[in-house]
Write a structure and sequence with these properties.
The chain is mainly β. It has 2 domains: about 30 residues; about 200 residues, no CATH class. It has 1 helix and 12 strands, in the order αββββββββββββ. A hairpin with a 5-residue loop joins strand 6 and strand 7.
Length: about 250
Amino acid sequence: MPDEDSFTEKSRHWWLSRVVVPLVVMAVGFAGLLWVNRDNQADPAPASGSSEDATCADDADHLDTGWGPDRPTVGPTQLSGQPSFNVERNNPNYGDERNFFRLKEASFTSAGEWTDVLDVVPGGEYLMQVYIHNGASAIDSPENVARDTMVRFDLPTCDGLALALQAVVSSPSAYPQLVFDTAVLRADEAIEVHLVPGSVQLFNNSFPGGSELPDRIATSGGLVGSATADGNVGGGFGNSLYVSARVRTSTR
């Protein structure tokens, strides 16, 4: 009689242990992940279309002003497990990181006053700001670093009573590889918007006072980073950074 405490891996045991059980565990784990990361009712709405939707209109309601793409999120005590930009839905110092692109009047030099929809006048100068946080672990390890990280401001080339400006953050080693957010300038007469040359700045722990970035950030985009503009953004809040630039409005 065989020992009742022993286990001989027969073909049916192999099937159960190597195939069926792992599949069940994976299914349960994936369902749990979807439940943990599902959006709540207070979350800002994602954009309904791609990052190439209409950017000029006579009414801000006709612009697509959300963020995207829809992606898994984490809470204050969680990590993304891989390089991921702005996935913290309740950052205690910022709020929902998916809403990472904001505007304010350039004359407001104190903290705060940021908004997603800003009323403007022709000839005014306004500040754009992008916040970037890699939700991976802060442990200094290659798998936690988002590489070749680029930022791009998409400024509309048309005019209108409402203009949608967009910020794009991308890295081939992040998931998703590209995230975007939009903000709106709104006026009483048709306006257009242009970058103020030489105004793009990178702020991080290495350059708390800012370091100038090239103007191509507002066209083709440019590299940013946690320490310098080398494209490397490490995980954790200590490696987060800001990119800002000024724009000027005018009539056509």
